[in-house]
Amino acid sequence: MKENKLFQVGTLNSLMMGDYHGSVTVKDLLKKGNIGIGTYDGLDGEAIILNGHAYDGRADGKVSEMSDTDKLPFSTVSHFDEGVKENEISFDSIEDFKAKVDQYLGSHNFFYMIKMEGTFNVRVRSCFKQKEPYEPLYKVACDQREYEFHDIEGYVIGVYCPNYVEGMNLPGWHIHFLSKDLTKGGHILKVSGENIKFKVNELNGWDVYLPHTEGFENWDLTEDLKEKTKAVEGSSK
Q1: How many CB atoms lie within 10 A of CB 96?
Q2: pTM of the model
Q3: Coil, strand or helix: which one is 42?
Q4: How is the beta sheet containing 205-209 ordered, strand by strand?
Q5: CATH code: domain of residue 154
Q6: Structural domain for 177, as ranges
Q7: Alpha-carbon distances of 175 from 24, 130, 166, rounded to whole Å
């Protein structure tokens, strides 16, 4: 039996409530996968994991490669199988992206990792690093910057999670952007592209690392944060 698992650090609800303490190092994360997304200690930017390297799309609009010792409070990665069939699509919005990519998925009860490459029009956002004591994510989401880029070459990296993991992770697609020259990136709010090449991996397992942080150990994580999560995922404009 061939296994291809999604590895996850932390839970979405704990991140939403303000548990931004990094619990897994970049070095250890990259042992679990060479592609994925997430955020860094203190909510410091948007993590884009590509080809075994960890990048940070920061709120100042710049991208930096992270060191082995940097930590993440929340992330999802996998070992990407490049041997799968390459496909090509065009889309004019994030909704169109989701509708068209979904046609290439099997059962929506599995996890999926997608890797796209091409020329995009994209709006991204990223949060500034927070100071302790941390506020819940739905309160600090306004402490971010958005950037728009047109006709920019780069990559879209995304994770699809099934509906039954709500609270643990974000159901549906969660996608990040990284420019080809590795200087621009972040969480995608809007995106379009023509003749975009992509590969998608179906993942048949899910491993979750639960952190030994004060917040995770002591908070009530049963609160329904669905509507607050939707607000955080959207654009501030």
Answers
A1: 14
A2: 0.96
A3: helix
A4: 63-65, 53-57, 46-50, 35-39, 74-78, 5-9, 205-209
A5: 3.30.1330.80
A6: 5-233
A7: 21, 22, 17
